[in-house]
Each structure stands twice: as C-alpha cells, then as structure tokens.
C-alpha cells in the first residue's frame, strides 16, 4: 500500500486539472496512433514531424491577436498540410515539406517578435502544458478525436490500399492524389489536438513512436493499428503518472516511454528473426 501511495498520490485521479489531463491525453493518444499508423505505413514520418511544428505559427499568430490558439493551430495545420499536398510531386516531397516547415517557422518567429507572449505561452506551445488544459480545450480535443476516428473508419480500406501499394491502387482506379490529400488533412487534425497537450516539438514522438513500435509486434495491418492505439494510451498514462510524481514535463516522459516501446519492438523483431536486421 505504501508503494501504491507513492506511485498514485492523492489528486492524481481526482484533481480537476488532472482529470482534464487524463481525458485529453487519452484522446490525443488515440488520435495520434490512428494517424501515425498510416504515417509509418506510407514512410511519411517527416510530414508527421513537420505539420505539428508548422502549426506552432498559427498558435503564435492567434496569441498575437488575442484569438483562440486551438483555432490558430487548426488553420495553420490545414494550410501546411494542403501546401505540402498540392506543391509536392513524387520526386521532391522532402524538399517541399522542408520549405513549408521553414516558412511556417519563420512566420512563427515573426509573430513572437511582434507580440509579448514569449515566456509561459511559448513554452506551452513548444513543449505542451497538459496539466493546464481547460475543460473547453478538452471538449475541442474530444471533438477532433471523434472526427478523425470516424474519418479513419470510413477511409480505412482505400487509404490502406493506397498506402501499401500506391501504384497498384492507382491502376485499379483508386484516386491516389485525393487520398494523399485526405491523409495530410488527418495529420493536420492530429497536430491540432496534440500540440496543446505535448507541444509542437514532442507531438512527433506520440504520432510516430507507438505506430513504429506496433509495426514490429503486429501480424496484420489491423492488429498493428490496434496495438498502436494501445501503446499510445499506455505511454501517455505512464507519462502522466511519472510527471505527477516527479514534477518533470509530461512531454519528456512521453518521448522516453514511446522510444522504449520502439526499442522493445526492435528487440522483438530481432529475437523472432535474427536475419531480419541484416537483410
């Protein structure tokens, strides 16, 4: 009982701000895992890295004009995703993504220079402030999670086909370009919800880490998707407990736990097939 009291001190589950953290963190874990599964499958992890960072400019701009930062995040996430979608060709995807990211970060720096929100607000945008999430933010994040989950459920089969075998899917009449755009919009929705919780710099770990780890454990795309969600939830829950106990940032523990799961996945793959890594 003494050990449980140390791990789960009073207030961890009952304090209002922690209840908001548990709900929003769980929602973001599910949302990020669903989208991250397709990002890993499509080898589009750089996009999953770039869009959340680009959305930072939208939050900084909203803070500058006194607007809603979640709305600013959503607008810039969508603009960045659509910019990457419509400017990218098959040969220069990485270059366009990097240029969109650089342009957005430049705008973010400009908005910060023009405003006076350079201390706590900027820190929260960069590294997240899950224990500072309001009830209104929770409702917005839950709405984004529900919307994304419904979209993934509807688009799952054709999006999976385009992600695994894009040329074959295109030859069979599946509109590849349209699904590329839809995937990027899903990344934008995920970034909008994740940045207030774990920050622009660390949301990448929650989107890619669980999905990358699940790719080693899953025996089928469906099992890998569900494992990705499970790993994401466990990662966030462990991070919340450890952060509450130590006072250290939640984002740090999210990054460490997801990296640990990925390491376990690699070890599992090597144990199951020692020749896989050499191949």
Q: What is this entry, summarized?
A:
With 279 residues, this protein is an all-alpha fold.
Q: Could you give a short account of the major beta sheet? A: none
- Please report the number of helical segments: 12
Query: What is the terminal-to-terminal distance?
Result: 49 Å
For the residues shown, what is the average pLDDT? 82
Residues in helix, %? over 70%
Radius of gyration: 19 Å
Q: What structural category arises from helix and sheet content?
A: mainly alpha
What is the chains' assembly state?
Answer: single chain
C-alpha geometry:
globular
What order do the SSEs take from the amino end to the carboxyl end, as H and E?
HHHHHHHHHHHH
Written overview of the protein:
The mean pLDDT is 82. The chain is globular, with a radius of gyration of 19 Å. By secondary structure, the chain is mostly helical. The chain has twelve helices and no strands.
């Amino acid at each position: 009982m003494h050990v449980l009291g140390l791990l789960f001190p009073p207030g961890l589950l009952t304090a209002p701000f922690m209840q908001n953290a548990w709900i929003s963190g769980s929602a973001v874990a599910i949302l990020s895992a669903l989208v991250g599964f397709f990002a890993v499958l499509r080898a589009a992890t750089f996009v999953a890295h770039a869009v959340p960072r680009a959305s930072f400019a939208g939050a900084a701009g909203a803070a500058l004009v006194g607007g809603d930062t979640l709305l600013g995040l959503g607008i810039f996430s969508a603009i960045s995703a659509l910019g990457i979608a419509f400017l990218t060709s098959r040969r220069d995807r990485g270059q366009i993504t990097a240029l969109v990211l650089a342009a957005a970060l430049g705008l973010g720096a400009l908005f910060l220079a023009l405003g006076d929100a350079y201390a706590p607000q900027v820190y929260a945008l960069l590294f997240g402030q899950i224990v500072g999430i309001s009830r209104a933010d929770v409702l917005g994040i839950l709405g984004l999670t529900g919307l994304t989950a419904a979209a993934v459920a509807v688009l799952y089969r054709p999006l999976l086909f385009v992600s695994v075998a894009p040329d074959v899917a295109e030859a069979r009449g599946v509109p590849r370009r349209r699904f590329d755009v839809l995937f990027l919009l899903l990344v934008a929705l995920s970034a909008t919800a994740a940045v207030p919780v774990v920050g622009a710099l660390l949301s990448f770990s929650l989107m890619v880490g669980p999905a990358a780890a699940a790719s080693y454990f899953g025996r089928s795309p469906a099992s890998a998707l569900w494992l990705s969600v499970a790993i994401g939830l466990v990662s966030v829950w462990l991070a919340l407990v450890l952060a509450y106990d130590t006072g250290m940032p939640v984002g740090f523990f999210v990054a460490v736990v997801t990296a640990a799961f990925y390491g376990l996945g690699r070890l599992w793959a090597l144990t199951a097939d020692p020749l896989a890594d050499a191949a």
